[in-house]
């Protein structure tokens, strides 16, 4: 009868346990692969009531453009006056103002997923801008509402009443700030920013700012920036700064007025926007001072700067040039040094008004 050597057996078990423990303790660190851009979509507004909005796609790998990629892929026009475009999750949202639709597409293929009608009975709500928070999209419309859209079902859950003719929006400190322009009531603009609680989805207050606010942005220091156009006669255009903790106005300045409809884009400690003199103003959000009157350093001439965007991956500032608002415009890109990036400008459609960057 064979006898077991318990000493050897115990040694073997101990060794296996030790090896197993080593395997369990070995932590494989995830590899952080930075996102890489595939290209940029340019939303061209076209002309109001001409039904000629287009979507241009510029492919970074081939350095080539498709001038009307939405129509090419879907066999139908995008609509009348495309106003805003954003990518959120796996979907791209295109706000088409005069057509009163939200076009939801696959950003990789530009294939339409759903066209959402923005009507109140038979009346057009005229959507303007879109922002996102968690599983909700918020859409401002000229009828004085902000729609709440579920990004999974693509169903509108409710409408929040705000001020007259709301324009751009920004989320800061778990609140949605909405610029109420009143711009369609010429000579009698609105002069408020609605504050919406994102937990209750209700308007909690209105903050008074310079008349006819259209553009709005925020920084990481608790400031909300509002660009207003004034009433084009007795009330000057200007910038209002709101404290996002108290919603109190901390600064109102006509010297910091911006160009009409320019987005306020954020890059670390800086915000950029088109100034009243058509330069790209650089404002230091930490020191609360203008750092540069114009980001562009190489004297690149831009005829009619219409809007801007910032690519935080490639660290490039994009400027949309509407030219004469009747023929094709151009898209410019500038590096960190303020100099034009090689290969730009590229040709766009009529009145390029918004861009969005898509990753590989």
TrEMBL record:
Top-level taxon: Bacteria
Coiled-coil ranges (or none): none
InterPro entries registered for this protein in UniProt: DUF5074 (IPR031815), Host-pathogen_enzymatic-act (IPR051200), WD40/YVTN_repeat-like_dom_sf (IPR015943)
Family annotation (Pfam families): DUF5074
Full protein name: YncE family protein
Matches recorded under Gene3D superfamilies: YVTN repeat-like/Quinoprotein amine dehydrogenase (2.130.10.10)
């Amino acid at each position: 009868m064979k006898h077991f050597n318990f000493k050897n057996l115990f040694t073997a078990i101990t060794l296996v346990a030790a090896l197993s423990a080593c395997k369990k303790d070995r932590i494989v660190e995830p590899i952080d692969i930075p996102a890489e851009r595939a290209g940029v979509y340019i939303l061209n507004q076209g002309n109001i009531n001409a039904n000629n909005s287009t979507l241009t796609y510029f492919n970074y790998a081939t350095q080539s453009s498709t001038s009307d990629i939405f129509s090419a892929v879907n066999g139908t026009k995008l609509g009348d006056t495309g106003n805003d475009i954003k990518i959120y999750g796996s979907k791209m949202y295109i706000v088409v103002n005069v057509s009163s639709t939200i076009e939801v597409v696959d950003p990789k293929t530009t294939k339409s997923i759903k066209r959402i009608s923005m009507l109140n009975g038979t009346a057009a709500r005229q959507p303007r801008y879109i922002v996102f928070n968690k599983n909700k999209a918020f859409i401002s419309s000229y009828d004085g509402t902000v729609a709440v859209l579920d990004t999974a079902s693509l169903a509108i859950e409710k409408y929040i009443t705000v001020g007259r003719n709301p324009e751009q929006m920004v989320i800061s400190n778990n609140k949605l700030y909405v610029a109420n322009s009143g711009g369609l009531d010429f000579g009698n603009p609105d002069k408020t920013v609605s504050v919406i609680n994102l937990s209750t989805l209700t308007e909690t207050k209105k903050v008074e700012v310079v008349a006819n606010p259209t553009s709005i942005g925020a920084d990481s220091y608790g400031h909300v920036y509002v660009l207003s156009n004034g009433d084009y006669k007795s009330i000057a255009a200007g910038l209002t700064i709101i404290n996002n903790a108290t919603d109190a106005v901390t600064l109102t300045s006509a010297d910091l007025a911006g160009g009409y409809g320019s987005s306020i884009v954020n890059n670390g400690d800086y915000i950029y926007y088109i100034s009243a003199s058509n330069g790209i103003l650089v404002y230091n959000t930490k020191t609360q001072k203008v750092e540069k009157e114009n980001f562009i350093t190489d004297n690149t001439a831009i005829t009619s700067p219409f809007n801007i965007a910032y690519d935080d991956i490639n660290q490039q500032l994009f400027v949309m040039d509407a030219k004469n608002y009747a023929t094709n415009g151009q898209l410019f890109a500038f590096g960190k040094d303020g100099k034009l990036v090689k290969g730009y400008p590229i040709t766009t459609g009529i009145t390029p008004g918004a861009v969005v960057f898509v990753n590989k």
